[in-house]
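We give its fold:
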Amino acid sequence: MRYLLPLSCLALSLSAQAEPLDPLISEGMALIPPFQQQLMATVKSAVESSGPQQAVQACQQMAPQITAEHSEAPWRVGRTALKLRNQDNAPDPWERAVLEQFQQRAAEGEPLQNMSHAEMVDGEFRMMKAIPTGEACLACHGGSIKPELAALIDQYYPEDEARGFKLGELRGAFTLRRAVD
């Protein structure tokens, strides 16, 4: 009984903290689909016009530009992963912890499709949404990459670690952040 009051206060405190984040979560979640769609459309168009080799080049050249286009103030939008292709997308310590949390939650059976995490970190709103490995991802990120494609990936991304994924596994996450006044 003596623990009931402190637990009630903690529950109310956590609930009160979550409510102010709801508008930021909604706003951030709305930024992900257009970003994801433009990235996927770029890759799909390259594959359809010239095959997976062209998709590797398109990713290397266009993904940073697409990311910049979708990072409209006050938001910064990006992608990160535990197994990187592009070292420029390396997770910071907070992102790494969230990615590891996503892996653990997935291992416990939680579906990746709707998995996300948001919180305030040092005066900044931070949010991540898991990216499951889709069928289209496997040509360049799966376990059976054609040798000529693997050679091209090695050329563009000499430190590539983003291979060997299976359908539905955690590929990475969208990561969003913005300062909060």
Q: What stands out?
A: Residues 1-18 have pLDDT under 50 and may be disordered. Helices lie at 4-50, 52-70, 93-107, 138-141, 147-156.
